[in-house]
Write the structure tokens for this entry.
Amino acid sequence: MNAEISGHGLGASRWIGKRVPRKEDPRLLTGRGQFVDDVVLPGMLHVAFARSPVACGRIISIDREAAQQMPGVHAVLTAADIAARPIRMLSFFFTEAEIAIAPLADGHVSYLGEPVALVVAESRAMAEDAAALVEIACEEGQPIVSIAQARTGAPIHPGMDSNIAAEIGDEEIDEELEQRLAASALRIRQKVVHQRISQAPMETRGVIASRDGPEELTLWITCQSPHLVARWVSLALDLPDSAIRVIAKDVGGAFGLKNHPWKEECAVIVAALLLGKPLKWIEDRYEALTASNQAREAEMTLEAGFDAEGRLTGSHGIYDCNNGAFPQGADSNIAVHMFVWAAYRQPAYAFVSRGWYTNTNGLAAYRGPWAMESLVRETLLDKAGRRLGIDPVEIRRRNLVYLADQPATSSMGIPLEDITPGECLEKLLQHFDMAQFRREQAKARSEGRYLGVGIAAYVEPTGSAGSMAPMTGELAQVRIEPTGKVTATMSTHSQGHGTATTMAQCIADRLGVRYEDVTVFEGDSSRGGFGPGAAGSRQGVIAGGAAIRCSELLADKVRTVAAHLLNASPDSVVLSDGMVHVEGAPEMTRPLSEIAAIAYGEPDRLPPDLETGLEMQFRYQPPPMTFTSAAHLAIVEVDAETGFVTILRWISSEDCGTVINPAVVEGQISGGLAQAIGMVLLEDMPYDAHGNPLAATFKDYLLPGIGDVPVFEFVHANTPSRTIGGMRGVGEGGAIIGPPTLVNAIADALSPFGEIEELVLPLTPARILDVIEQRDVSGTSKANSPVAETPVTLSPEPVPAEDVVQGVSAAGPAGDWDMVLKTPMGPQAMQAHFDVEGSALRGYLAAPEGRQEFRGGIVEGNRLRFDLKVEKPMKITLKYDLEVSGDAIAGKCKMGMFGSAKVTGKRAP
Amino acid sequence: MSEHAIAWTVNAHPRRDRVEARTSLADHLRLEVGCTGVHLGCEHGVCGACTVIVDGRAVRSCLMLAVQADGACVTTVEGLAAPDGTLHTVQQAMREAHGVQCGFCTPGVLMTFAALSSDAAKADEQAMIAAMSGHICRCTGYQGIRRAAKALADKAVGSGQGT
């Protein structure tokens, strides 16, 4: 099952690949975990929030009189109070938003539940009692709730000219692609309307902020990386890193919600700085469901052409997602398009993508945030297969990229060197007899039972490092203590990932010590170096590599010391089970503890010039991206009377490279699959027309229970990656590949009745009965007009030619400009300088990261065109096409495969 | 708010407490008794994380008032393992089955398993899995919890040594 791993100078005991018990379990099983609400500080006060009762409106008054007079209440703070300590609410990429975001609503409210006032009291109960007495009077406006409303409605944020939070791509299908699609034997569209999802970690959000003197701030916060929170808060508050310590020993799940602090946490941090008392806020479930950031609400229409043999000829995608009022980074989700066809031989793809502001809870990440791509593609492929009379396995075989096809480049320019979706599918099919199933299916249908099989394949970018500010390498610091016991501090962080276990396995494996003798410390920003924690399926890949290489380097030092002490050659020294052996000389065997004690305590016995102690650190910078591949298969039965879906079987065939611990890998995939089942069948966070979130308890927001999730079967179809250790990330995959697998199985079961024309999630029994009874399945297609029918002009209105001529060109394009480029990672401010000679243009663009010159540009009247080559996030040529109008400049920047991004700006003063 | 005196037993230790009438058993166990292994996932009786054993029965401590525990014998997750640290069978079963990820729902799962695996309950695998429908786990997809239920029903759990 596991990849061959070379090990120099190591004994027979290997720990990588073993299903060892987890290091985290003993404390968690005995109630001795330390979650944020378990921490109590002397003199600590408690926070509760008074929240907006409406989805949008102007705040007329905030009456805090009654609240302030409640016993035990220390303070009731509003936006005006906490403005005394400015804080910049940054995105995950540490960029500032285009819109104003403050911890507490200031002047107007933009979603129902937005925190307006913060109550500080001696107990949580007192704080909640008092918060209920804060009277917030609002002049209620007409909220923008849906994407459809956002397109046509007035901008929800003052100063914005539309509700577009982010956009990228090109509206029009270019001629060549249109010709490809028009010439196809089959041209087919698949539309998916994805519901809004609550990440719903079992531990809600929470924070304790303690100002320890004027220069130190300590936070206990439930998060995905204490290091990332420390860095974020440091930048947000403009404090040096050293002043901030963030601790998060145990975290009860996060799934993307807890990447960094947001409104409530920031309000608590600022209030703690202002009041000088430790403050604790623990979100209750009602708040978690109705006021935490949320995810996934999006629509996508994917169009694709096929030749008569079912081979792809071209494709176009339109994606829109609801960003809510205050997203943790305005997002048009470029990754959807980057990866939609990455596993397939797709000759041409173009797209347009937009994120929309609405009066709803802001967008945050959720496991596989770009997962729409796999859902829309894999369901389209099955639909196309049914139209062409090609079965789901065959249509994938004809289009998937197999190892034999590589190296290759995807239609979006991604280099593919070792992806294995096709191989995963073939290995899966060794464990499933499709012909036999089709016979059973036919027999069942004749008895009025509707079975279906669903297949899906995909690739996923994991272990990303080096192209985005927070996505760095990972650090391992490993030491053999003078006792011979091994301790490591890692940049990793577990919210259930079991990194203390898997990292200990990597270390024990490469140091030749017992797993039981290795302890891994994490969960505290004062320990270990920076890492973004659980983000982008990265820790096993990168930190695993760091732990392996660091341990190998340390083992080399042990061999050097032991060889010197035992008068042997370093090559003959073998570390195994915590003992140091010399090959061929069993009498020379020494416990590692003896070597360690000498390394620390008897410097005279060490080789000259060798540093004392047995300590090592290594930061691993992996390849920019490591692909994980998988193919999944599900069997379902749909009850045609009730529309109820029963999942009968589910097989995962995944290539996650070297498996450090199969139980941890299977646990990650299973958790993602359970969330996939929730997304397809159960979970939904709807809003009513007034912007009221309608799922406020776990009786309304239906999480999958044990009866909804089948036993999963695993085929570990692994090929080692090119990273140190050969791992590939596995954290998000289940949540990405699960939904199309299950939808395809349901669609196959329903095929005697008809197609699920427009896939609206969740597929409730009512929606499934709509297909069975041949009604309009969505129930929404009349309410939400299709994407293609409501084109929105995204580029600025072209300036009429005469305006350009009249009096505007006097200033001309030459000189300095302040410009903003709306990149997929947020708006990027830059200074432009243009020198014009006749029609020749040269100059530079400057940003804090550096300045880049260009020449060879063209000026035509007030239109400027020039190219700029960049290396990050990947090698692309940026093609600027701008129009000057007086002191304003606007236009587009074509960013290679990413399509066009908007540029705006004004003449520098 | 009225205050009430209660005399009860928590994890085999007799106690006397004064409790506000409105305080839930869960809050009282966490804040006054120090049983922070009692986890609050929803505070409305759905997720099951706060489950404790009251007089032999698995109970959601967020839905019970502390004052109602007067005279009761309460066991929390802290009271499961033997004084020498040997894990209770249900703890060992969950460990062997890799039933734990983030560990937040775990204490409640353990308490329901413990109530069902007592000699009096004699629950079989199906009954245990049915009871688990009252627990929400967002991490594991219930795979390890299912295996633990089977191992407990089959009495195929290791000794609990060697943690």
About this structure: Residues 112 and 131 of chain B are 7 Å apart (CA to CA). Chain B touches chain A through 52 residues (CB under 8 Å). The beta strands of chain B are 3-10, 13-20, 51-54, 57-60, 73-75.
